[in-house]
Amino acid sequence: MELRLTPKQLAQATGVSESSIKRWCDLGEIATIRTPGGHRRIPLSGAIEFLRGSEHELIAPEALGLPAGTRRRSPPLDNAAELFRIALEANQEDRARQILFELYLKPTPLATIGDRIIGPAFQSIGHRWEAGTLEVFQERRALEITRNLLHEIRLAQRPPVRSDPGAIGGTLSGDNYALAAILVELVLRESGWRAEFLGSNLPVQTMAMALRAEQPKLCWLSVSHVESETQFLSDYGQLSSASGDQTALVVGGRGLHGRLRQAMRFSAYCETLEHLETFAKTLKAAHASTAASRD
Amino acid sequence: MELRLTPKQLAQATGVSESSIKRWCDLGEIATIRTPGGHRRIPLSGAIEFLRGSEHELIAPEALGLPAGTRRRSPPLDNAAELFRIALEANQEDRARQILFELYLKPTPLATIGDRIIGPAFQSIGHRWEAGTLEVFQERRALEITRNLLHEIRLAQRPPVRSDPGAIGGTLSGDNYALAAILVELVLRESGWRAEFLGSNLPVQTMAMALRAEQPKLCWLSVSHVESETQFLSDYGQLSSASGDQTALVVGGRGLHGRLRQAMRFSAYCETLEHLETFAKTLKAAHASTAASRD
DNA sequence: AGTAAAAACGTTCAAATCGTGCAATTTATG
DNA sequence: CATAAATTGCACGATTTGAACGTTTTTACT
């Protein structure tokens, strides 16, 4: 992927004239930096941000390092989930990348991509695995591919700045399912958080230590699988007491049935990534206003 | 003594050409001092001033945040390992990216990067974790960062073509350490293999199934940790019998002490990635010649 | 200290980009 | 429909950039 684009490159990728790109750069519609000599340079994240916020077609995706065939107009969501699953099962990394980036450029919020595409795709893969029509290694390989693609989207996002509120999260010991927690990181970043995925299978002590060390405004815990409920509740208790008043504790995941949730204290339980996004935006706005009133 | 940068280093940190940096130095845009021999040296303060003034955001902002006391510049490999470790521990993703890509573009073979940079860095991180000077979450976060960076390198590699010999690999159940296996994938790809990392923590049955389904010319197994030796040997036996004559079984990793190795049958045991690379190249050449003689 | 490899020097030059003005096209409005 | 306003695309000389190349300095190693 190109890290920096010249106006000409972005012009070729979008099919508009170089003059227009330059004008939009000057009007602030495209995030631009200047070389000391005065030449414009457009970070890839700025170009993608521009594409997501405009109706411009993408006629030469390869100029941005995206797979050829990536369009702005793409199949509807429900269809895309199926196509994505098929691409993953057939080990077609490029096709999967194309589908995700098409949606991302549309622009579809990442929370929606997670809830309506990636989630259903893996749910379906899980069913087919239980039914014996899919091998475990195919599911694992699909996870690897998706994880890598999510990192590519992460690279295309506006990088967080110091003034963004901090957030950390991951999964606890015994839970190896990192994908959901990584999706949370991306969704939070899209909502203006300085979010950091710490890892999966984390001992609770180290997560508590991370909370104390980094004092984030938010901490998310993705729970896909609970081996021992008592063990989990004990772990969660430690986490809960380690998070002070300043840290919102957000939980979610298949592993949390109602009975379990009732024994937990949290700031929010999110059924979907879209819920999470709403909550995160509200919380961020609240922090921003208190910070403003303090000035 | 203040840290000094060469024009090349600043060029790599900012993503512009070395020529431009030199020109800007001469125009006074960047505060520069000269060595007795006439080489430009840019003090940290000058570089920061330049970056602030020109709003020329860094590809690698932390490139300039080097800890004091490292007087050497972009120096030999062992030093790079140390710098890489420091960047990882301090959660400086950009700095870590710069170090790895600088080496990769040099070009340093990926096997060497793995053996001399990434390996030692995590060995050192492990020691510091055992000694209690580093938290677990810092190690995990370092793993996440490195894993993502390796994927970025993967994107920069020549994509495999159908005619390349196939290879699959991963780690078995109980072994969550994916990094080494991912490195193997990259090294094999660099050597012209169509290598695919299937995942970590793989049940042996599914790995055997993958062997039968894909009929690769090579299968690698990374073993960082063995919980039960008998269990492992049993698993390995299954794998060994699933791999026919056409598949070379390659093993490696800290977890394989001599006693264990003696009870295993394999095509190659690789102490280092460099060994692996040599073996893979030899094997590929052998396959190419038999294929040629068949035509 | 001596040597060979690596890195940086200064210079040159083609290609790319700059800013600007203007014509062509689209959109809004009476 | 006619007119004004706004947007888009092109042209042009001046400036900037990045790559090449032979020479000199620095570094790594014996």
Protein model, in words:
- 2 copies of one chain form a homodimer.
- In chain A, helix 7 packs parallel to helix 8 (179-190).
- In chain A, strands 5-4-6-7-8 form a 5-stranded parallel beta sheet, with helices on both faces. In chain A, strands 1-3-2 form a 3-stranded antiparallel beta sheet.
- Chain A has helices spanning 7-14, 18-26, 44-53, 77-89, 93-105, 110-130, 136-156, 179-190, 204-214, 229-242, 258-262, 273-294; strands spanning 4-5, 33-34, 40-43, 166-172, 194-202, 218-222, 248-252, 268-270.
- The mean pLDDT of chain A is 92.
- The first copy, chain A, is built from 12 helices and 8 strands.
- In chain A, helix 8 links the parallel strand 4 (166-172) and strand 5.
- Chain A is globular.
- Chain A has 295 residues and is of the alpha/beta class.
- Chain A folds into 3 domains: 4-64, Orthogonal Bundle (Multidrug-efflux Transporter Regulator, Chain: A, Domain 2); 77-156, Methyltransferase, Methionine Synthase (B12-binding Domains), Chain A, domain 1; 166-294, Rossmann fold (3-Layer(aba) Sandwich).
- Helices cover 54% and strands 13% of the residues of chain A.
- Chain A binds chain B through residues 1, 3-4, 33-37, 43, 91, 135-137, 140-141, 143-144, 148, 151-152, 154-155, 170, 176, 196-199, 201-203, 205-207, 209-210, 213, and chain B through 15-16, 20, 24, 29, 50, 54-57, 59, 91, 135-137, 140-141, 143-144, 148, 151-152, 154-155, 170, 176, 196-199, 201-203, 205-207, 209-210, 213.
- Chain B binds a DNA duplex (30 and 30 nucleotides) through helix 2.
